[in-house]
Amino acid sequence: MTKAKVIGMGHYLPDRVVTNFDLEKVMDTSDQWIKERTGISERRFFDPEKDTVANMAARASNLALKQPGIDIKDILVVGVEIQSSALEMNDRGRSVSVIFADGAGALILQATDDSDNQGILSTHLHADGRFAEELYVRDPGSSRKERLSRLHTNCHV
Known about the structure:
The chain is an alpha+beta fold. It has 6 helices and 5 strands; from the N terminus they run E-E-H-H-E-H-E-H-E-H-H.
């Protein structure tokens, strides 16, 4: 039976670090409250002058492809998101603003057979769409300049 195994990984995180203490300045929360519920102490936010979904994906992909034994023709899976520009950095948006951030990750997958006892044995994906409205992005072009200017007017994180 053919399976997939991970043979390379890469990631990219934007330079801008936003700590829980930074969030305390713009919303009713605390470092302790966030850590107790999420384990998060800091997150990364993109720089609109430097970072885009495409170049963040490319940076993560290039790191994954630089690992020994990787060929440019191997299978590549990339996940990348910019969430910070769609977050409400105030008390109303607190429940999601303390969780989400920006970044990219890349994996190189390779087919393998049973004989090497390696690889992904199974996957189980479960979803509950009842709460989709609380997590979706209304404005998927949220890195546009007009959206960013509204965000930065309301939040100086």
